[in-house]
Amino acid sequence: MSGASDRVDYTPSALDRDAVVYVAGHRGLVGSAIWRKLKAEGFTDLVGRTSAELDLKDRDEVFDFFAEVKPRYVVLAAAKVGGILANSTYPVEFLSDNLRIQTNVMDAALAQEAERLLFLGSSCIYPKFAPQPIKEDTLLTGHLEETNDAYAIAKIAGILGVQSVRREYGLPWISAMPTNLYGPNDNFSPQGSHVLPALIRRYDEARASGADSVTNWGTGSPRREFLHVDDMADACLHLLEHYDGGDQVNVGTGTDVTIREIAETVAEVVGYSGRTEWDTSKPDGTPQKLLDVSKLADAGWTARIDLRTGLESTVDWYRDAKDLVRT
Question: What is the set of active-site residues?
């Protein structure tokens, strides 16, 4: 699904630090990291709304908000997200909620002619058995992983939304597809978390309770790539200022580890010395998801935070903010 036929005439450059920037989903894992990054980089007019203040699924509310705020730049990081269990259990909500959020925000941004919009998706958009590492052009070349296909379809629709605006209206909107993210403000709940925050919670609770063993889903053999969310935020600003194109850009580290290896590292970081067992009756999900990040490297960006360092800081944050995190 190429955006090569768009009619955008735009040369990326430094964003105006005094322009209105709306970060949709500014309290979430990705949005909060982008908010921190933009503040640190001197942006003076950041705008965010909680879901209680603005329901992005309500089209009229979203259009009224955009008409009032008139953002020049938009980062669309808001989404209904979750791990294998949540995606498998609630596919209707993952499809419907994300389609409505994306469509409402993009249509309202278009009505206000927002100059730059960055749409954030997920590496789950790619086929389950895509050649590794996964290149951007493998999109729509095979079947999706069935445990999160509804969410993936919504994100693919978002990419097409960006490409359509570029083709029809000539606005330089872009899309970025991050790998598995982790870090401050993640979701650590048993029902809604992704693999890494779930492991952090599980092992830390086992350490605190003195449990003899921890049981994880699957075989531990699937390979996953992990990117600290602060690196993701840095990449987002870099893309907004240095990249333009209709095709989505993979954002990751270019390296991966097995779930078994990451579980061992988490156990070490939290200080758990008990046994780890594997419930092989539970699904593994996609066997490997490693992104080809050559396009991102060509744009001049590479990840800086190594996995061990990122895990240590995330565990520290989780323990300090345990009363505030989504558990």
Answer: 151
